[in-house]
Design goal:
Order of helices and strands: HEEEEHEEEEEEHEHEEEEEH
């Protein structure tokens, strides 16, 4: 068993061209669903490759990622080829492909830049962010802080469950049900939850966020400065799914990942007005198929 930071480790191999770098890694069986790697874990590997490519560049932070799964990723070694497409004043564009057994299984497009306000180039104008108490600012849709949430066990089929502490904010689906019953809802489903990495070696870095965006249910948009590197920091997840249709149970999800109050030992009433102080770290949109874990095992065995 390996913590997330180890399971996403990549090693530089070569640069066949000035704008291409090749990295090697191996898909870890403990970050899988059935016999296939979790899709968010695979997206995290792709983000890791982009971050390694940019680690000596001023555009170090992932801003946007689009990930397409062309073929099932195997629990085997792989290569990620990263191509630097263009560098501008504020952003750099990259593409990446994950290869196993000579087949391109995943493709990704990235935009990298600077998300930490303290790292803004001195000549760049300081734009006013839309934060509370601005009337149009988005406030976290979670209503109960981590200290008041309900801890739950992840399904045993998710082999990575020992590495994750998971809890629910029951107020989110309850609010959705009230609006639906009153005839004022948007349909679909809504959920709210919190997560924390259990292993001391793991830190909440940008390449972790795609994993939680996937498990909480693509298209990833990193909203704000680098997330806290503290292992013991919770992060909040708000998700909606509006459509399920034939064939293959195709459905969508929209995910927001939020910071949360640091003091998880406090009683909810002791935290004061904590919601306006939180910031969104990432928004994600996905289109997925409903494939049961059993189906994944049978498809891999065939």
């Amino acid at each position: 068993m390996a913590p997330y930071c180890k399971a996403t480790e990549l090693h530089y191999v070569s640069s066949p061209a000035t704008n291409i770098k090749i990295y090697q890694g191996a898909a870890d069986p403990f970050w899988a669903q059935g016999t296939l790697p979790n899709g968010g874990y695979v997206a995290g590997i792709m983000v890791t490759a982009g971050m390694k490519n940019q680690e000596l560049d001023e555009h170090k932070d992932p801003i946007h990622a689009t990930v397409h799964y062309l073929s099932g990723t195997l629990l085997e070694p792989f290569e990620v080829h990263v191509r630097h497409i263009r560098k501008g004043k504020s952003f750099s564009n990259l593409s990446a492909k994950l290869i196993q057994r000579g087949t391109v299984r995943v493709r990704a497009q990235f935009i990298f830049g600077v998300t930490d306000p303290g790292d803004r180039p001195p000549l760049e104008p300081a734009h006013t962010p839309l934060y509370p108490p601005e009337p149009h600012a988005r406030v976290t849709p979670l209503s109960i802080p981590p200290s008041g949430s309900t801890v739950v066990e992840l399904p045993k089929e998710l082999t990575f469950s020992p590495y994750i502490l998971w809890s629910l904010d029951p107020s989110v689906p309850a609010r959705h049900d009230r609006r639906t019953a009153a005839g004022d809802g948007d349909g679909g489903a809504e959920g709210g939850r919190y997560f924390m990495l259990r292993d001391p070696a793991d830190k909440l870095t940008p390449n972790v966020l795609p994993f939680f965006a996937d498990v909480c249910s693509g298209l990833l948009h990193f909203k704000r400065g680098r997330p806290s590197r503290r292992r013991d920091a919770h992060n909040g997840v708000y998700g909606t799914s509006r459509f399920v249709d034939y064939p293959q149970g195709r459905h969508n999800s929209n995910i927001e990942l939020w910071t949360t109050p640091d003091d998880t030992t406090s009683e909810p009433g002791e935290l004061g007005n904590w919601k306006p102080r939180q910031r969104c770290l990432l928004v994600a949109s996905q289109v997925m198929l409903a494939v049961p874990v059993k189906g994944k095992k049978e498809r891999r065995a065939s």
